Amino acid sequence: NTVMAAQMTDAHRRFLQVLMSNGITEGSEARKLHQHCCETDKVYYAHDKLDDFISTINSHLQPLFMQIRKGISEDDGRAHYAVVNLAETEVTKMASDYTETELELFRKAMDLIILSENGFASSTDILNLADQLKTKKMKKKEAEQVLKVFVEDKWLSEKNGEYTLHTRCIIEMEQYILSNYQDVARKCNICHSLAIQSQVCESCGIGMHLPCVRKYFRGQTEPRCPKCNEFW
């Protein structure tokens, strides 16, 4: 109730504005931004109150069906923050920035990534779909440029010719992915957020992010599944 009643100051507005323009902000940068906004607007700052600061903003965003959400990078386990539009949970929220053909390519790339065993799709596999699009066939050179834009806009990540979903995409599209890929999408057994890149227990099938696996089994001589206790 205290949070709900809290005033949205210029510091909160400034923080929100930067988050929205960034698309996604890494945790340490969000903490620096929190300090900068509070000090600039001469309001109370405490280094351990970022979550409360964000809760205040979220209470004011609620009527607009928006929310600042925290997500974890599947590569290194670091926290990230993004502003999510709760009223549009589908890929169509990207429609204002991309053409129908570009969105179709994105959906096909997402299909390959989510349905893969390791959470990656090769550029070759994605580009092979470019001339099979229903909206309008794309030349491979054109498709390469579109993929580059998706990486720049932080919807996809690319490493050595392999593509996966960027942390921003996972934070914003989590509900869409969980409801549209019910048979294959899984949540990490440790942090309970959507896991695209994960290790899976061969016995019971639960999945864990690689950073969560490292953290969970740190110091254990014999790693065992947290659910079925089989050797991991």
From TrEMBL:
GO terms for molecular function: ubiquitin protein ligase activity; zinc ion binding. Pfam families: SMC_Nse1 (PF07574), zf-RING-like (PF08746). CDD domains: RING-CH-C4HC3_NSE1. Its main location: nucleus. One of its GO terms (cellular component) is nucleus. It is found in: Chromosome, Telomere; Nucleus. GO terms for biological process: double-strand break repair via homologous recombination. It catalyses: S-ubiquitinyl-[E2 ubiquitin-conjugating enzyme]-L-cysteine + [acceptor protein]-L-lysine = [E2 ubiquitin-conjugating enzyme]-L-cysteine + N(6)-ubiquitinyl-[acceptor protein]-L-lysine. Its EC number is 2.3.2.27. It is an enzyme of class 2 (transferase). Keywords: Chromosome, DNA damage, DNA recombination, DNA repair, Metal-binding, Nucleus, Telomere, Transferase, Ubl conjugation pathway, Zinc, Zinc-finger. Residues 188-229 form the RING-type domain. Belongs to the NSE1 family. RING-type zinc finger-containing E3 ubiquitin ligase that assembles with melanoma antigen protein (MAGE) to catalyze the direct transfer of ubiquitin from E2 ubiquitin-conjugating enzyme to a specific substrate. Involved in maintenance of genome integrity, DNA damage response and DNA repair. Component of the Smc5-Smc6 complex. This is Non-structural maintenance of chromosomes element 1 homolog. It comes from Nicator chloris.
